[in-house]
């Protein structure tokens, strides 16, 4: 086991200076390492306190919640220390508290950086009070949380901040094994027009070299090359180091855990296993959705059954109301011939299901002469005309030519989008078939 650099995430309320601080730290880093080149944004960078020292800090440079939560969502907690930036002129705000909650939930220690101390008329005492009121136990008040007063804009006390981070890291005694198989976390992935698929990995265990084979979820790579945050090629990446890797066949998402395997066959086997597991997960999820849908259907049919009973009762009343008169059907039962056309099987079935109860009733008859899915046809109109019936459509449009034909033939086409309205109309139509009510026995 060997000591490794601490991984730091900078968090805090919007506009409190996270980006400015990251930029300032990144610039310090470039100057310190004397590359002087353009820094690359690769999702993380290594900061050196002094050129000669081994005291390196790795900053995740996607500020705020996004990095933290996408990592956490995949169960990869890479952050060792959170630097909580609080603007001196604003104090503790909503996202300061959220950041604090994130850090506490993940059991990650925080260091508070009160920023913008270059501003005139700031009230440091009040900012500190707001920190205390939020449950942050600052060292100067007997707690264990370090506080640094900085100006990210002017580059004030950034050295001090790095010292605090290193002191915290020392207490945490962060160690990793640089000799074992590589374990890493993907910080960022992108496709570069010139270099193809790239991922920034943060190495957690082992040392990554060219030619190594990596797998993460459904992604895999044979490492063709590695670059540090200055875009400089590196031969080896050790624990705590962020490195941009090329050689990916498919890209891994941010937060994906990555492991090294011995050969391509092993990589493919692992990916197969992963895809089987994912399939199984998907099947389980689909099953859940199906169960929920079935539950909804059950509720729908129960509701429908209730309506059927109610309708049956009302139709019985209609029949009783008209029974003293001569009936319009052969056996003395009112009868209505209908054609049903619907948008999908389900809706046609639901209507038929209800209609069936009247067809079997000896008090009234609904006779379905045709039914089906799709628009009303010429044949439907002719049938309805022959039987003096009505065409009910559910959730479909009838072509103009058919509407004119129906008008010519004196056939009613009634369209509904709400099933209960359609049933209510059926009752009305049946009622119309009955003679005038003289005897009011309802
Ligand atoms: P973020 O939303 O937390 O990333 O905040 P930014 O880094 O974008 O900073 C928000 C504003 O505060 C910008 O206009 C910065 O220039 C300004 N700012 C950041 N740090 C300091 C500072 O130390 N002093 C002063 N005076 N302004 C700062």
> What bound compounds does this protein have?
guanosine-5'-diphosphate
Tell me the major beta sheet.
6 strands, mixed
Which spans of ≥5 residues are poorly predicted at pLDDT below 50?
31-38, 318-328, 436-442
Can you list the strand order of the major beta sheet?
A: 3-4-2-5-6-7
Class by alpha and beta content: alpha/beta
The DSSP helix count reads 10
- Average the pLDDT over all residues and give the rounded result: 82
CA(first)-CA(last) distance: 92 Å
Overall helicity: 25-40%
Q: Beta fraction of the residues?
A: 25-35%
The number of distinct β-strands equals 20
**N-to-C series of helices and strands:** EEHEEHEHEHEHEEEEEEEEEHEHEHEHEH
Radius of gyration: 37 Å
Shape: elongated
Explain what the structure shows:
The chain is 39% helix and 26% strand. The protein has helices spanning 18-33, 65-73, 94-105, 124-133, 158-172, 264-322, 345-360, 378-387, 400-409, 419-433; strands at residues 2-3, 7-12, 44-48, 56-60, 81-87, 110-115, 146-149, 175-176, 183-192, 196-205, 208-209, 213-216, 219-227, 236-237, 242-250, 257-261, 335-342, 365-373, 390-394, 412-416. The strands form 5 sheets. Strands 3-4-2-5-6-7 form a 6-stranded mixed beta sheet, with helices on both faces. The protein has a 6-stranded antiparallel β-barrel with strand order 9-10-15-13-12-16. A 4-stranded parallel beta sheet has the order 18-17-19-20, with helices on both faces. It has 442 residues and is of the alpha/beta class. α6 runs parallel beside α7 and α6 (264-322) runs parallel beside α10. β6 (110-115), α4 and β7 (146-149) form a beta-alpha-beta unit. The model is unreliable at 31-38, 318-328 and 436-442 (pLDDT under 50). The protein starts with a strand and ends in a 9-residue tail after the last helix. The structure holds guanosine-5'-diphosphate. Keywords: GTP-binding, Initiation factor, Mitochondrion, Nucleotide-binding, Protein biosynthesis, Transit peptide. It comes from Helobdella robusta. Its main location: mitochondrion. One of its GO terms (molecular function) is translation initiation factor activity. Residues 3-179 form the Tr-type G domain.
């Amino acid at each position: 086991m060997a000591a490794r650099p601490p991984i730091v995430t900078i968090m805090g309320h919007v506009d409190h200076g996270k980006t400015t601080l990251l930029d300032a730290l990144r610039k310090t880093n470039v100057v310190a390492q004397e590359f002087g080149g353009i820094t690359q944004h690769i999702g993380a960078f290594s900061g050196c306190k002094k050129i000669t020292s081994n005291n390196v800090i790795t900053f995740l440079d996607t500020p705020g919640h996004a990095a933290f939560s996408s990592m956490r969502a995949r169960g990869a907690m890479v952050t060792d220390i959170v630097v909580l930036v609080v603007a001196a002129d604003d104090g503790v705000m909503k996202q300061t508290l959220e950041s604090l909650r994130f850090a506490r939930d993940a059991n990650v220690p925080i260091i508070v950086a009160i920023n913008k101390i270059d501003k005139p008329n700031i009230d440091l005492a009040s900012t500190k009070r707001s920190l205390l009121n939020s449950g942050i136990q600052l060292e100067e008040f007997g707690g264990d949380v370090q506080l640094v007063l900085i100006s990210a804009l002017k580059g004030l006390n950034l050295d001090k901040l790095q010292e605090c981070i290193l002191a915290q890291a020392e207490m945490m005694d962060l160690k990793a094994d640089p000799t074992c198989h590589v374990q890493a976390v993907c910080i960022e992935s992108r496709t570069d027009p010139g270099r193809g698929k790239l991922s920034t990995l943060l190495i957690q265990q082992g040392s990554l070299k060219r030619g190594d084979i990596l797998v993460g979820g459904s992604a895999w790579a044979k490492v063709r090359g590695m670059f540090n945050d200055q875009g400089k090629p590196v031969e080896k990446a050790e624990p705590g180091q962020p490195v941009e890797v090329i050689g990916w066949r498919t890209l891994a998402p941010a937060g994906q855990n990555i492991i090294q395997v011995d050969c391509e066959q092993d990589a493919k086997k692992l990916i197969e296993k992963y895809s089987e597991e994912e399939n199984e997960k998907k099947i389980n999820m689909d099953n859940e959705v199906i169960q929920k849908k079935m539950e909804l259907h059950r509720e729908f049919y129960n509701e429908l059954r209730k309506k059927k009973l109610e309708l049956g009762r009302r139709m019985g009343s209609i029949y009783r109301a008209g029974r003293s008169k001569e009936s319009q059907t052969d056996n003395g039962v009112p009868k209505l011939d209908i054609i049903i056309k619907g948008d999908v099987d389900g809706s046609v079935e639901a209507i038929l299901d209800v209609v069936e109860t009247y067809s079997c009733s000896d008090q009234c008859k609904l006779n379905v002469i045709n039914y089906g899915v799709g628009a009303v046809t010429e044949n439907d109109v002719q049938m309805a005309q022959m039987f003096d019936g009505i065409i009910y459509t559910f959730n479909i449009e009838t072509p103009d030519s058919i509407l004119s034909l129906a008008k010519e033939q004196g056939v009613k086409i009634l369209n509904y989008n709400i099933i209960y309205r359609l049933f209510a109309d059926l009752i009305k139509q049946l009622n119309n078939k009955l003679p005038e009510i003289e005897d009011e026995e309802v």
